[in-house]
Amino acid sequence: VDTIEVVNVPEGMTAEIINANLTVRVRGPEEELSKLTEEDISAVVDLSAAEAGTATYKAFIKISDQFPNVGAMKTSSVSATVLPVES
């Protein structure tokens, strides 16, 4: 997965994801898995509790609504650098 959305970046800060992609394992019925593509899977990283510096954050895996019986097998993590916005 290379679609990683960053949400809730603290005000006055900017964030950069260090990992460009994640490997995600999914499970579900074979008929749904056979139609699933990389574009149907994305990751969301919530930085609401982030502080300045580089750290690892949980990435929540989102799968397209077209695949209601498919899910990620575990939560992934990404590294991100959070820095104050330069004025």
Task: List key phrases describing it.
single chain; 87 residues; mainly beta; five-stranded mixed sheet; two-stranded antiparallel ribbon
Q: Would you give an account of this structure?
A:
This protein has one helix at residues 30-33, and strands spanning 4-7, 13-17, 26-27, 41-46, 53-63, 71-72, 76-84. The chain has 87 residues and is mainly beta. A hairpin with a 6-residue loop joins strand 4 and strand 5. The longest helix has 4 residues, at 30-33. It starts with a strand and ends with a strand. The model has no long low-confidence stretch (mean pLDDT 93). The strands form two sheets. The chain has a five-stranded mixed beta sheet with strand order 1-4-5-7-2, with no helix packed on it. It has a two-stranded antiparallel ribbon with strand order 3-6.
Outline the secondary-structure elements.
Layout (H helix, E strand, L loop, with lengths): L3 E4 L5 E5 L8 E2 L2 H4 L7 E6 L6 E11 L7 E2 L3 E9 L3
Parallel strand pairs: 1-4
Antiparallel strand pairs: 2-7, 3-6, 4-5, 5-7
Query: How many helices in DSSP terms?
Result: 1
* DSSP strand content: 35-45%
How helical, in percent, are the residues?
A: under 10%
Tell me the major beta sheet.
Answer: 5 strands, mixed
- Silhouette: elongated
Poorly predicted spans: none
Derived from helix and strand composition plus strand pairing, the structural class reads mainly beta
Please give the order of strands in the largest beta sheet: 1-4-5-7-2
The ordered H/E elements are: EEEHEEEE
Number of extended strands: 7
Radius of gyration over all CA atoms, rounded: 15 Å
Give the terminus-to-terminus CA distance. Answer: 33 Å
Q: Give the overall average pLDDT.
A: 93
